[in-house]
Amino acid sequence: MSTATTEQPKKTAKRQSRTKLTIRRFARNRLALVGLAVMVILFLMAYIGPLVNKYDYLYHDYMAFNAPPGGDHWWGTNQGGQDLFALTMRGLQKSLVIGLLVGVISTLVAGAVGAFAAYYGGWADRILMWIVDLLLVLPSFLLVAVMSPAFQKAGWLIFVVLLSAFSWMITGRVVRSMTLTLKDREFVKAAKYMGVSGPVIIFRHILPSMASLLIIDTVIQVGAAVIGESGLSYFGFGIQAPDVSLGTIISDNTTNAPAYPWLFYFPAGCLVLIGVAVSFIGDGLRDALDPNASGAKAKAKKIKTGETKAGATNLSNQLQGPTTSTDVLSPS
Amino acid sequence: MGRYLLRKLANNLILVLLAASLSYFVAGLSLHPQSNYEGRNPPLAKSTIAKTLDDVNMNPDTPIVTRFITWADGVAHGDLGKTIDGSPVNDEVGRRIGVSTRLLLLATLVGSVGGVALGALGAIKQYKLFDRVTTLASFFILAMPTFVLALFLKLASIQFLGAGTIHFTGETDPEFAGHWDFAALGNRAEHMLLPGLTLVLIQVGLYSRYQRSTMLDVLGSDFLRTARAKGLRRRTALVKHGLRTAILPVVPLLVYNIVLLFVGATFTEKAFGWHGMGELLVNSITRNDVNATAAVSLFTAVLVLIAGILSDLMYAALDPRVRVR
Amino acid sequence: MTDSTNPSQPSDSTRTKEGLRPVTDTRLDISQPVLEVSDLHVAFPSEAGQVRAVRGVSYAVRPGEVLGIVGESGSGKSVSSMAVLGLLPESAAVTGSVKLNGRELLGLSDNEMSKIRGKDIGMVFQDPLSALTPVYSVGTQIVEALQIHQDLTKVQARERSIELLDLVGIPDPKRRVDNFPHEFSGGMRQRAMIAMAIANDPKVIIADEPTTALDVTIQAQVLEVLKKAQDVTGAAIVMITHDLGVIAGFADRVQVMYAGKPVEAGSVDEVYYSPRMPYTIGLLGSIPRLDDTERRALTPIEGNPPSMVELPKGCPFAARCPIAIDRCREVEPTLSVKEGNTHPTACHRSHELGDTLDPAAIYPVPEVPEASDLEQRPRGERATVLELDNLTKHFPLTKGAVVKRKVGVVRAVDGISLDIREGETLGLVGESGCGKTTTLLEILDLPKGQVGTVTVFGKDTRSMNRADRKTLRRDMQIVFQDPMAALDARMPIGDILAEPLKTHGWDKERIAARVPELLELVGLNPDHADRYPQEFSGGQRQRISIARALALEPKLVVLDEPVSALDVSIQAGVLNLLDELKTRLGLSYLFVAHDLSVVRHIADRIAVMYLGRIVEVGDTQSIFDAPSHPYTQALLSAVPLPDPRRERERTRILLTGDLPSPANVPSGCRFRNRCPKYLSLDEAEQLRCRDEDPASAKLADDHSAACHFAKALEVI
Ligand SMILES: Nc1ncnc2c1ncn2[C@@H]1O[C@H](COP(=O)(O)OP(=O)(O)O)[C@@H](O)[C@H]1O
Ligand code: SF4
Ligand code: SF4
Ligand SMILES: [Mg+2]
After folding, report:
1. How far is residue C435 from each of residues A70, A273, B188, C632, C705, measured CA to CA in Å?
2. Pick from B30, B260, B264: CB nearest A146
3. How many other C-beta atoms lie within 10 A of the C-beta of residue C248?
4. Subunits touching A (CB < 8 Å, at least 3 pairs)?
5. Which among C440, C462, C436 is positioned nearest to C451, based on CA atoms?
6. CA C324, CA C335: separation in Å to the nearest integer?
7. Is it the case that residue C10 has pLDDT exceeding 50?
């Protein structure tokens, strides 16, 4: 055997595993770390805070109406004497849970529907595109708002379903267009000509190839869902009393806010913190998982070095993922 | 090019009609106008309620399709039906449409131009101070729900400038209402300040993020390198070849964004007490007013149609590949 | 390339004819260099450490001279030319000196450099598709180039750009000047780029792989244009390429680069005929050549270029060098003329090469595998593996976004008949866009509806059910062009190799036994089964692709440009492997390629495709020795040989224009609008070409061509 040589694979950078490299990249992004920390603190506060606070969110303290922050009522009270900290933590729980659920559900739906529609094409595909176009004209906010009276008594889980049902389409379109390109990629064709079946190809090759997009998207969707939920609740189309969400707390106290500003600043602050933390994390994940996308891509591509031969040892090639702009805009 | 635009127009028109019809169905099925009359004291007679509802074409006992046909026929003749109080929706819309339009127009114009400029500059100065500051600012603004931003601006102006320094409730102070002279315009501008700022900030945030990322894509492109190899200075090449190309993918955002903007305007109108279309939407859903809700949906659909035409025209003007097809 | 094809000099030129072509041996030339680069270093910061992309490049070019810079990808060619133009990102650290007519360019501000870029130094880039701004017309872009540096009115500049387009051979330049880049073909865009580069009469033109993305026939045209541009401007040309053939006849001097450094420099003749540095010797030995008369195994250079981040001490080539000695691993050799040599090299043993060491013998020549019994049997006695009869694939050409209207047909594949026998390699060649890949996919898709039949192992694919198809997939496998794209980056290679086995129901133990076997078969270490594709080099990845294709012990392997993404030194190893596997395992190959030298090396029979048809088919010998279709002749003639003297003597048959669109196939003979022969025919004969679609006619036992006037011609 003369030609079959035993070349050694290049020992580039001591065989870093993908995960490690991703974590390192993520950790280098300071804002992303801040975002992660904020998120963890918010979660801890939301679930541990009520345990240490001595007031229940439903309890009306008739000794303290519109009490300023400090003392017994850490964040003060509202007009009805309810403890603002307890209320806000309760609202925070709701917002976080709804955000997470909607983020995960809608991304899963988007991934599955987008990939199948694009892989098989035909009617399913056309209908998907049609729905997405329609949603471009009719904002999901409007639809959920109009539908809300019909579901008002059914509880917040229905609300989650409704929100998810109207937030997967844009991602679905992104997944679809990525699948269309992936479908023509040679490793997918190779699998096809090996005799691997369609669904297996989708779950084994196509969806994992866009794992980074899906993860980033989940995070972005969480933020979008929190914002969307609070907006609907603000108008009374979402979470219904006696339950509270950050949106309803802000809405209930609007008239008193100029005189007792903490009624606005605490719940609104929490809301903004969630949003900011989520975008920091999303941005950090994007850089870490998909260095070819947006910012990192431009850095690596600043000078495109002539031929793209397979021998090139560009670091950015190593974690090559499908590149798309994943700036899915959040409905506000 | 004409054919291309016509085709797109037809496409959009169909979409808009579908959307408007769909939202009529959704509203008709999920809103309960009868609940406004039930449970009154003294209770109203069933037949009275039915009569009232029939008058405004909202009787749930009439099949939805029949109601739709009646409504659609009216719309086709320029009649949007009656509100739940029995007054014409046309009047209501006529009063409000200008209010929203002014707000939307301002936000779109200032927001898109400002956003594109900031985004492009941010990309060129990637990782420099300017980029970091604008990026951070846009993160914060986009993380805020519109109503939070609106309420924050309102609160901050009261707290820091004192109540009454900036007049923001409604479109004008009552004494200027309906006047368009110089003083009234000034008053209007003052009222526009905070609501306008709310929407403009968000629009600038959105457009700048988007423009920044498309611009970054272009920064590494071969044709930009060619432009510089020809002897163009960096700055000139960036604007003439880079931005000119990177702006293309942003143009369709105009359409996509208009609905988001409308939702944003709803919050803003509510927060600042403007009586616009957004407020109408919220009020009519709360009052189970099917026709008014449908009218607002129709309004957003038309907004999309107009934005669509504008963006197609702009795209065709900017991209020769569309033009020659 | 001969001077006879060049147009007469413009009369207003003050340059003398002698000034254009200096004597070849420029070390004796005393005229001043226009561009002088000395000790150029470029480093980039990167995640893994400092990338030392260029480590001491020096060269000088004089007016009218052509300097070729060759090297594998990543050797620092592009970076060094970008450094000259000052177009590197700010993060790059550049040191050394770049002098234009004695003026130092390094350290000039962007403003000052802008006055030089495009005026004194013109630049042509590799990828013509992305190098022009899509939203401006070609004319606008040339006008811009003119107006930056010259005081011209709009009208004057436009006139001038039309002249320039005419000069670079754009047909109908008055109309074309208003076209947008997307309306130009790749070759035309590259011409436009050249027009832009010469717009201001530059003193130096730097061309970075200007023809790499183009087909050979277009490459020949573009090289011709570049030559002409040089004659008109009298500029010096720095021509960067990885293809030793391209510059053999084009350059006066060559510089070979390796790991960011020149390792050998000299006149083309010196470097090609008496290379004195093992890397150059290896490169020359590893190229399959069009003029090889007998089949020989190529000598690959083992291993891969070093990483530019952690360069080992000593000679960067030491790990791959067959004659490395201890000193090589300690001290890095410098570029200098070694004792007994005529030209500079960077090698400790150059003085021995050509003296006590025979350059031709330093690389172990791999053995050509003995032809198996099967391969020795006459073709007629072997079973047919694949047979295409009038295979046709037409795509409807539609218009309209909502309602699709059919406005024409794209005749991607327009009636192809061929067969492949056991143990045989059929090479399918043709320009890009002629329908090669569609043909392959048609075969692999096992189509039902279309016109024509595909018969695999004696079974007509139209009559097959699902189970039959799956069985068939086992016997027929594919290897793709891009080894990176063909492997799922998220799977370890063990899993990649196991996938076909799993799909076809092998049990765990058999799979576990088969995977290491496969890795060994293609020359990889079985212990590496748990590594990811990214950890392997291009050549190794292509071996993995081959291993995967062989997993199920197929009989027919379809190869779609399997080596065209690889560097030559790596390509040789893969070609040898394919050759060996074929003999050992009794495989048949359908080998699609655009590179005729590669095909000559590997194929037993060759089919030449043009615009959806096969225009000539026959055994390799006949096709190369007696090409009879004018298209085959032009194709062969366009391939440059890595042999400077022969290149200079050759006359090229240049094709005019581009491949027509398959949606718009000419009447009669589909080649007639580009056919050089057509022009030499008389009226009656031309009429026949226009009216009658030539059928394939037998010329010899295994050789036929589809031309009314087929006649053998020697072109190589
Ligand atoms: N902007 C950059 N940042 C980091 N490394 C780079 C950059 N540009 C090129 N390189 C590296 O420099 C080396 C030489 O590249 P290049 O000059 O393009 O080689 P060639 O043109 O010979 O193929 C490669 O290893 C490449 O990855
Ligand atoms: S210096 Fe040594 S290792 Fe380098 S090329 Fe010469 S002989 Fe080979
Ligand atoms: S048939 Fe005529 S046009 Fe066609 S290849 Fe032969 S000579 Fe040329
Ligand atoms: Mg290069």
Report:
1. 78, 57, 67, 16, 18
2. B30
3. 23
4. B, C
5. C462
6. 17
7. no
Query: With contacts defined as CB-CB under 8 Å, which chain C residues touch B227?
Result: 133
Tokens standing for residue C226: 């570049």
- Residue of A13, A15, A193 lying closest to C473 (CB–CB): A193
Ligand nearest to the CA of residue C681, numbered in listed order:
3
Average of per-residue pLDDT across A249-260 = 81
What does the domain layout of chain C look like in residue ranges? 26-271, 281-288+299-367, 380-602, 604-716
Closest alpha carbon to A218 in A286, A153, A266: A286
* C26-271 shares its CATH topology with C380-602: yes
Q: What is the pLDDT of residues A32-47, one digit of tens each?
A: 899 999 999 999 988 8
Out of A145-149, B304-308, C401-405, C527-531, pick the least confident: C401-405
CA of C601 to the centre of ligand 2 (A): 29
Q: How confident is the model at residue C380 (pLDDT cuts 50, 70, 90)?
A: confident
Query: Would you give the distance in Å from CA B95 to the centre of its chain?
Result: 17
CA distances from C392 to B181, C389, C411, C557, C671 (A): 76, 9, 8, 21, 19
If DSSP codes are grouped into helix, strand and coil, which group holds residue B60? coil
Element (H or E) spanning A225, and its range?
A: helix A211-234
- Ligand 2 centroid vs C568 CA: distance in angstroms? 20
Domain spans in chain A, listed from the N-terminal domain onward:
43-269
Computed over every residue of chain C, the mean pLDDT equals 87
What one-character DSSP code corresponds to residue A77? B
Ligand 1 binding pocket includes C305 (Cβ within 6 Å): no
Q: Is the pLDDT of residue C185 over 70?
A: yes
Within C403-537, residue ranges assigned H as helices are 436-445, 466-475, 493-503, 508-521
Asked if residue A255 has its Cβ within 6 Å of ligand 1, the reply is: no
Place of tokens 């049902």: A165
CB within 8 A of A326, min separation 6: which ones?
A174, A213, A216, A217, A220, A286, A290, A293, A294
pLDDT at C473 over 90: no
* Cα of C309 to nearest chain A Cα, Å: 10
Are A208 and C490 in contact, with CB atoms under 8 Å apart?
yes
Q: Whose CA is nearest to atom 3 of ligand 2?
A: C318
Closest CB to B229 among C87, C137, C182: C87
**Does residue B93 contact residue B277 with C-beta atoms inside 8 Å?**
yes
According to the model, what pLDDT value does residue C8 have? Answer: 40
| B323 pLDDT higher than 90 | no
CA–CA min distance B180, chain A (Å): 31
Q: Which of C128, C127, C125, C163 is nearest to C143 (CA)?
A: C163
Measured between alpha carbons, how far is C372 from C559 in angstroms, rounded to an integer?
Answer: 21
> Which residues make Cβ contacts (< 8 Å) with residue C459, sequence separation at least 6?
C468, C472
Rounded mean pLDDT, C127-133: 85
pLDDT exceeds 80 at position C115 = yes
CATH class of the region C26-271: alpha beta
Residue C704 pLDDT exceeds 80: yes
CATH number, domain C380-602: 3.40.50.300
Q: Do C133 and B223 touch (CB under 8 A)?
A: yes
pLDDT at B88 over 60: yes
d(CA C256, CA C238): 13
What domains, with CATH codes, occur in chain B? 2-76 (no CATH), 97-286 (1.10.3720.10)
Chosen for mutation from B126, B199, B216 (greatest number of chain A CBs closer than 10 Å) is: B216
Asked if pLDDT for residue A67 goes beyond 80, the answer is no
In C, which residues are within 8 Å of B229 by CB distance?
A: 85, 87, 117-118, 122-123, 125
A43-269, which class in CATH? mainly alpha
Give the helix/strand (H/E) hosting C398. Answer: strand C384-399
Q: What ipTM did this prediction achieve?
A: 0.84
